[in-house]
From TrEMBL:
Name this protein carries in UniProt: ATP-dependent helicase
Region Disordered, annotated ranges: 429-481
Compositionally biased tracts (Basic and acidic residues): 436-468
Biological source species: Helicobacter brantae
Helicase ATP-binding domain location: 37-206
Xref: InterPro entries: DEAD/DEAH_box_helicase_dom (IPR011545), DEAD/DEAH_RhlB (IPR044742), DEAD_box_RNA_helicase (IPR050079), Helicase_ATP-bd (IPR014001), Helicase_C-like (IPR001650), P-loop_NTPase (IPR027417), RNA_helicase_DEAD_Q_motif (IPR014014)
């Protein structure tokens, strides 16, 4: 039997663990689970790479639970970047371990040290911790007889992004050397590989490629706009697609705040989520989104990564992501659990060159389209007008119009103007122009020799390039791993 289709019942798990899995409602293991669990059960070190939402938590929680002895000591440690993730993980371990009567403790910054010490004295078997606070406890010798048999580094790439790698490395100097170490990550940047080399012992590798996830359940769209029209374009797309629940990924925290504000002004239920917000504000945002009080989350990659929100209908890329993995990662937030999803990317002509690398990664060609106009129905428009609050400047304009026309004429002119400008106006280049720009992009910009001199810096190329082996080699060479 190949591990690919291995069932939970065939993994040699304890009955209590199988019951816990059933209780969680898991019928069959996800790909990363069916590959990682048997390796972890054998006691080997492991590096597992799989994108967000693929069930990595249970992939380490199940083998941990299977070897718990309940010997009044902490037997397993899970290190994870944020408090929210720590709480999610602790909750899942607790639920899976329900029939083993497992105790878990969460340790993170912002909570009182004394309270955490009390919890640690309760003899938990599993400790879930964020790096900073854990290191603080270890340095001050506040966790007696700390010698976990299994140590998990969860969401490792996010720890890197958040600048925790030094802390993580220092934590390992307090851990027993005969431990089993499991490293989980969605992407595998060089620094993580280096860290893995230092802290893992002859690890086995599991890598779940996302290609099969991205094609089937997610419709991918790319709309061409000009720089400076991103907010407007997002509002337009919201009007056109009326997404039930969406995440908009921005590159910066500032953009996230500004766009969320703009959407709120346009009467959308939007909220921001990024690393500059304090823990409480972030938790509030996530909770509101989960409870559908807010149905548009404007987020940066780091803030949104790893969060388990399963019913997202649309993902928007405010910019085309520079890193193809990040694209795959983001759009993987929709189309989960067999549901259909849509991923929409805004792209300016200057960003066309990024497209090729993304297409290579998702093995799917992305058509560039013009931004749709918003065909508002009469009824809808009437409702919108009726709901609009009267602005101060409106009175001045009204008076001016009345000087020149009668009321009916003014009103009809006004409505015609709204139809033309407000809803059906064009944002960005039209399809013809897009095709022309794309052709231009494909044409070699310089003569052959000068392009050669540019070498690996040129990440895109002519049509001819893309079919030659040399291009692929170059493109791969420019990637992060
Ligand atoms: P990751 O850490 O890879 O981002 P999670 O561990 O947070 O993913 O899991 C994502 C979601 O999938 C969670 O809601 C989890 O309960 C669910 N899940 C995990 N494994 C399974 C499974 N085998 N069957 C069904 N749902 C699962
Ligand atoms: Mg996870």
């Amino acid at each position: 039997m190949s591990q690919e289709n291995m069932k939970f019942e065939e993994m040699g798990l304890r009955n209590e663990v199988l019951k816990g899995i059933k209780e969680m409602g898991f019928v069959s293991p996800s790909p990363v689970q069916s590959q990682a669990i048997p390796i972890a059960l054998q006691g080997d070190d492991l590096i597992a790479q799989a994108q967000t939402g693929t069930g990595k938590t249970a992939a380490f929680a199940i083998p941990i639970l299977n070897q718990i002895e309940k010997n009044r000591e902490i037997e397993a440690l899970v290190i994870t970047p944020t408090r929210e993730l720590a709480m999610q993980i602790s909750d899942e371990v607790f639920k899976l371990g329900k029939f083993l009567r497992i105790k878990t403790v969460c340790v993170y910054g912002g909570q009182s040290i004394r309270r955490q010490c009390e919890l640690l004295e309760n003899n938990p078997q599993v400790l879930v911790a964020t790096p900073g606070r854990l290191l603080d406890h270890l340095k001050n010798d506040r966790i007696p007889n700390f010698s976990p048999k299994v140590v998990v580094l969860d969401e490792s790439d996010e720890m890197l992004d958040m600048g925790f790698l030094d802390d993580v490395e220092e934590i390992f100097s307090y851990l027993p050397s005969n431990r089993q170490t499991l490293l989980f990550s969605a992407t595998m940047p060089e620094q993580i590989q280096k860290l893995a080399h230092k802290i893992l012992d002859k690890p086995k590798y599991v890598k779940i490629t996302p290609a099969n996830i991205t094609n089937t359940d997610i419709t991918q769209k790319c709309y061409v706009i000009n720089e400076g029209h991103r907010d407007e374009a997002i509002v337009r797309l919201m009007d056109v697609f009326t997404p039930q629940k969406s995440i908009i990924f921005t590159s910066t925290k500032k953009e996230a705040d500004a766009l969320a504000e703009r959407l709120v002004e346009a009467k959308y239920k939007a909220g921001a989520l990024h690393g500059d917000m304090d823990q409480r504000a972030r938790m509030d945002s996530i909770r509101a989104f989960k409870a559908n009080k807010v149905n548009i989350l404007v987020a940066t990659d780091v803030a949104a990564r790893g969060l388990d929100i399963s019913d997202v209908s649309h993902v928007f890329n405010y910019h085309i992501p520079l890193n193809p993995e990040s694209y795959v990662h983001r759009i993987g937030r929709t189309g989960r659990a067999g549901k259909k999803g849509m991923a929409i990317t805004l792209i300016t002509p200057l960003e066309f060159k990024e497209l090729k690398r993304i297409q290579d990664e998702v093995k799917h060609s992305l058509e560039l389209e013009e931004l749709p106009v918003y065909e508002v129905s009469h009824n809808e428009l009437v409702q919108k007008i009726l709901k609009t609050k009267i602005a101060d400047e409106a009175m001045d304009i009204y008076n001016e119009l009345m000087d020149k026309h009668d009321e009916t004429n003014s009103a009809l002119k006004l409505i015609s103007y709204i139809l033309k400008e407000g809803t059906k106006s064009k944002i960005g280049p039209n399809q013809q122009e897009i095709n022309r720009l794309q052709e231009q992009e494909k044409k070699p910009k310089q003569d052959y020799n000068s392009r050669r001199r540019e070498g690996g810096n040129s990440r895109f190329g002519s049509q001819r390039d893309s079919h030659s082996r040399g291009f692929r080699g170059n493109s791969r060479g420019g990637r992060r791993y």
